[in-house]
């Protein structure tokens, strides 16, 4: 038995192939069109074009003042996202050099000795309030207040120039120097018992435009402390630790010669 194939078999196969290719091409075009619409509306297209343009530019990027201000504003919003206030410190170059010299001395000795002569001028701004003239210095006894780049400061706002949260004299320090929230909890218990205590807060600190993280802000002993808690103005006593730190420095550093005569923490 002899099989016979239709004479137009090759024509049928050819037509089917062409039809299949046409359907495939139309499918690819439709998919590309829909993908393009999604790519554009999703914002990926703009980012992709910006990235390509960025590759063509030189390594030196020139930014406008508006762009820089927008970046700073964005960073400030990031600080505020934790619900804490922002404390901005602007320390001039000369003042910072004196602070760094004092820190190096303290690290070499193992103890920070300070006096009123160590105060240097700077400016301060709390959130969006007015800029205040201040004097500040390093603070602390042990050098745990000076480790890494999160140093502790004693701040005195210039007389009659304003206040921060009703305080004209206060300190800022890394929370670990006060055992994190334990100190805050202790102060809150003192307030509940109507015992005179320094006000204590947590703030974001930005020094010369650099975010230094969360600091503990602690009120210093000043007439503002008495007034804020309804006490009459009176004498505030403190323990003089001068001899203790003097002896400790001499024992630990036989070659250390004490120069300053007015130390305090």
Question: Which terms would index this structure?
Answer:
265 residues; alpha+beta; disordered C terminus
Describe the structure.
The protein has helices spanning 9-41, 44-56, 65-80, 93-109, 181-192, 223-228, 242-252; strands at 85-90, 120-126, 131-138, 153-157, 169-173, 200-207, 210-219. It is α+β, with helices and mostly antiparallel strands. Strand 6 (200-207) and strand 7 form a beta hairpin. The protein is elongated and about 105 Å long.
What pattern of helices and strands is seen along the backbone?
HHHEHEEEEHEEHH
Please report which band the strand proportion falls in: under 5%, 5-15%, 15-25%, 25-35%, 35-45% or over 45%: 15-25%
Shape: elongated
Structural class by SSE content: alpha+beta
Uncertain stretches of 5 or more adjacent residues: 55-61, 255-265
| Helix content bin | 40-55%
Radius of gyration: 34 Å
Sheet with the most strands, sense and barrel status = 7 strands, mixed, barrel
| β-strand number | 7
Largest sheet strand order: 1-2-3-4-5-7-6
> Could you give the distance between the termini?
116 Å
What is the averaged pLDDT score?
77
| Count of alpha and pi helical runs | 7
């Amino acid at each position: 038995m002899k099989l016979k194939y239709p004479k137009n078999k090759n024509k049928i196969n050819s037509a089917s192939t062409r039809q299949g290719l046409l359907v495939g091409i139309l499918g690819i075009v439709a998919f590309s069109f829909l993908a393009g619409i999604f790519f554009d509306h999703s914002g990926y297209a703009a980012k992709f074009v910006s990235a390509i343009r960025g590759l063509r530019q030189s390594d030196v990027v020139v930014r406008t003042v508006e762009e820089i201000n927008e970046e700073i504003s964005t960073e400030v919003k990031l600080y505020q996202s934790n619900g804490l206030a922002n404390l901005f410190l602007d320390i001039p170059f000369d003042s910072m050099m004196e602070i760094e010299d004092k820190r190096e001395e303290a690290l070499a000795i193992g103890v920070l000795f300070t006096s009123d002569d160590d105060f240097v001028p700077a400016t301060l701004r709390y959130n969006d309030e007015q800029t205040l003239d201040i004097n500040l210095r390093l603070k602390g006894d042990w050098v745990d207040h000076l480790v890494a780049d999160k140093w502790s400061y004693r701040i005195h706002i210039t007389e009659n120039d304003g206040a921060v949260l009703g305080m004209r004299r206060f300190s800022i320090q890394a929370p670990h120097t006060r055992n994190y929230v334990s100190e805050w909890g202790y102060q809150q218990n003192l307030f509940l018992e109507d015992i005179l205590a320094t006000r204590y807060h947590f703030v974001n600190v930005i020094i010369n435009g650099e975010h230094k993280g969360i600091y503990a802000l602690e009120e210093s002993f000043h007439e503002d402390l008495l007034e804020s808690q309804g006490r009459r103005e009176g004498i505030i006593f403190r323990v003089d630790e001068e001899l203790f730190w003097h002896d400790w420095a001499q024992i630990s550093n036989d070659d250390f010669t004490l120069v300053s005569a007015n130390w305090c923490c």
